[in-house]
Design goal:
single chain, alpha/beta, 4-stranded parallel sheet, Rossmann fold, 2 domains
């Protein structure tokens, strides 16, 4: 995985906040963006989008890395509040715990924007924006799962109950719950006869995706379709399928991965989602800036940016952002 953090200002949690960006506005506006882990190139792209849009609006932008830890993310948000930034955005690691972070920020008079991951109960609908949020920005994971199920259903046998394996993302994310529930709903809507014979969490990596699919194929060599929550795992899964000589198909959420493009074009990944990471980040900065600079801005804004699904037939329409 490429390390692009050299293009960003990444702050250690024990370090005083530093700002990047253009000169002062009528009043200096500082926006903090807390990601889950800068080892995830998708989040680097989101931070790129957030930083570029924030600076375009005249704000100073602070980027903070939680390094995959809920505790470190909590500390990062506490640090941002203590430094009295004007707005906080985050890709939250734990949807339920994040409620306390939003409430703390609100108590300090600081607007809070959630990017991609819902705050509140993991099973909450995308449209159920947590009341304390200035905005929720991203895409509806339930809808994404439902849409992908339509493609998966076309790959299933009609003369027997199909076998499906799910390659989940990391536990704790509302994204994981909603992608799975949406996929099941889509299969039901399509009238598919199916059985989920494997559903295992991962750490979002290609290696773990390959391992999960290898194990699933040992236990169930006749799996018909794998559904991955991200293309990193889908690539690993496709490799496992090839190694096992299986005819299983793969559909995946969170696509648009440069390394995954050859797999889509060759048909090893049947359908993928072209994620618009920079656009999500930019929309987060835009809505947060409005909330930070205008106290009359209504809370609970919902900004949905549906990512398109692509296949081998239109793969060139997707421009990888990670």
């Amino acid at each position: 995985m490429r390390n692009r953090t050299g293009f960003l200002t990444v702050l250690g949690l024990s370090t005083a906040l530093m700002s990047v960006g253009p000169g002062a506005y009528a009043k200096d506006v500082t926006l903090a963006f807390v990601v889950t882990n800068f080892q995830n190139v998708a989040e680097v792209s989101q931070a790129d989008g957030f930083k570029a849009e924030g600076e375009k609006l005249g704000a100073k932008v602070v980027l903070m890395d939680s390094k995959g830890s809920v505790e470190k993310q909590s500390n990062a948000i506490d640090d941002a509040i203590a430094q009295k930034v004007d707005g906080i955005a985050a890709i939250v690691l734990d949807s339920a715990v994040a409620k306390t972070w939003v409430d703390k920020a609100n108590a300090a008079g600081i607007p809070f924007t959630a990017v991609l991951v819902q705050v509140g109960e993991p099973t909450a609908k995308w449209t159920d924006v947590y009341p304390g949020l200035a905005s929720l920005v991203g895409r509806d994971d339930f809808q994404t799962g439902e849409d992908l199920a339509g493609f998966a259903a076309k790959q299933l046998p009609t003369d027997r109950t199909a076998k499906i394996g799910i390659v989940e993302g990391m536990a704790g994310y509302s994204t994981v719950v909603n992608l799975t529930n949406g996929f099941k709903a889509g299969l039901e809507k399509a009238g598919a006869k199916y059985e989920i014979v494997s559903s295992q969490p991962t750490d979002w990596t290609q290696a773990k995706g390959q391992e999960v699919c290898q194990n699933a194929l040992v236990a169930n060599p006749d799996i018909d379709v794998f559904y991955a929550h991200a293309e990193t795992m889908a690539v690993g899964c496709a490799d496992a399928i090839s190694d096992a000589g299986s005819k299983a198909k793969v559909v995946t959420a969170a696509g648009g991965l440069a390394a995954g493009m050859p797999y889509v074009k060759s048909g090893q990944i049947t359908a993928s989602v072209c994620e618009l990471w920079r656009e999500y980040g930019a929309a987060g900065a835009d809505t947060l800036y409005k909330a930070a600079t205008d106290a009359k801005t209504p809370k609970g804004a919902l900004v949905s940016i549906p990512p398109p699904i692509y296949t081998a037939e239109n793969a060139d329409s997707c421009k990888p952002q990670w």
